Amino acid sequence: MGNTVAREDFEWVYTDQPHADRRKEILAKHPEIKALMKPDYNLIWVVVLMVLAQLTAFYLVKDLDWKWVVFWAYVFGSCISHSMTLAIHEISHNSAFGNCKAMWNRWFGIFANLPLGLPYSISFKRYHMDHHRYLGGDGIDVDIPTNFEGWFFCTRFRKFIWIVLQPFFYAIRPLCINPKPISRLEIINLLAQVAFDVVIYYLWGVKSIFYMLAGSVLGLGLHPISGHFIAEHYMFLKGHETYSYYGPLNLLTFNVGYHNEHHDFPNIPGKSLPLVKKIAAEYYDNLPQYNSWIRVLYDFVMDDTISPYSRMKRQLKGEVKQD
Fold it and tell me: How is this protein organized at the quaternary level (predicted)?
């Protein structure tokens, strides 16, 4: 077991997040980037194909031995499920149908949610908008771990367990940090998901349900793609709040690795973020960046100076508007 890390609290900062100012500066110098602020209609067909792929997998695993159900849940189902959560991330930014058809995006998000097994899409959208508006905001940004997480998961072994349990913490953290009244769309999301799960169980049985739920949990826990949870905002270098990843797993994750670019331009679909980096290379090439999410996970566990406390946090001033 590793030694307790030195950090005993979050990195409190008293400046605004850097993304708004950099966005203004980049747009002043490269106004052609505005042409990228449009929907990615290909996202619709990719999501439909992913849902169909999982439906096919639900059917194929129904008669397999349990060991093979578990195997395929981790090797295939986890990748599709985690990728689908990032498709839902894209949809939360109205990338499928555009801002003028916001409700179409909400319904499509509920559809994309179906093969995950647990209702997620609508709640994610509500909290994720807060994450962009109030990055690191105390009591608002639920991407920031709780004080308990920072205090308890402070050794190598405990940090490893924390990575395994990330789906659990992402699910309960909003209830602890920033609970919100349940909305009508969240109830619809829940009812649609329960109905879908019941139909899958009725048609193909418990192994298909297990494959669906296990794939979602495993894909968001100890999995190479889950490195993005830590890579995006954990402070491996003092003073740097957001980091980009430019490795091959962007192909499976709708370019979520281009995270500085995404926070600078949240209304540009993931498909176009590499173009943002290319056009405004002078702003991004010299920022700290990663090429391996697996290495991020390894370094997070093994580096005794890094823990869930390794996040920038800010006390918000003025009026806070939440979704």
Answer: Interacts with RLBP1; the interaction increases synthesis of chromophore-precursors by DEGS1.
In this prediction, residues 93-120 reach a mean pLDDT of 97
CA-CA distance, 265 to 56, in Å (whole number)?
A: 36
Alpha-carbon gap, residue 92 to 88, rounded angstroms: 6
How many other CB atoms are found less than 10 A from the CB of residue 132?
Answer: 15
The structure tokens listed for 252 are 């499976």
Per-residue pLDDT tens over the stretch 309-320? 999 999 988 778
Neighbours of 30 (CB within 10 A): 14
Give CA 272 to chain center in angstroms.
Answer: 18
pLDDT (tens digit, 9 = 90+) per residue, 288-300? 999 999 999 999 9
User: What is the per-residue burial (b if ≥16 Cβ within 10 Å, else e) of 298-315?
Assistant: ebbbeebebbbbbbbbbe
Question: How buried is 53 (Cβ within 10 angstroms: 0-12 exposed, 13-18 middle, 19+ buried)?
Answer: middle
User: What sign results for the dihedral spanned by CA atoms 43, 106, 228, 20?
Assistant: positive
